[in-house]
Amino acid sequence: MAPKEQYTSQQETSLAVALGLLVFNNDIKDTVSKLLSAMDLPVCFVEIVTTVLRELEMIDSKRIRESDFKTDPCTKNRRKKLKRDKCKKQDAFQHQ
Known about the structure:
Elements: H1 10-38, H2 46-71, H3 73-94
Helix pairs in contact: 1-2
């Protein structure tokens, strides 16, 4: 929203942070639908907007599903075990 590689003003940065917080707290679909409802769009954009909102809802559901998977205790323990095994293999390889 505000790239780190280039200079952005304080106003742009605060707007980007606020938008990021909205997306984090309310999902992308709700944030975009609120922004689009604030604008008076012509009728020809209604079909495009509904398609975009449907796609954004799919993105949100995928993000939530993956987050639930990553925070599952069994999955966390498996990732930790795989990391430990990988470190053990690397340590064994270095000392030979």
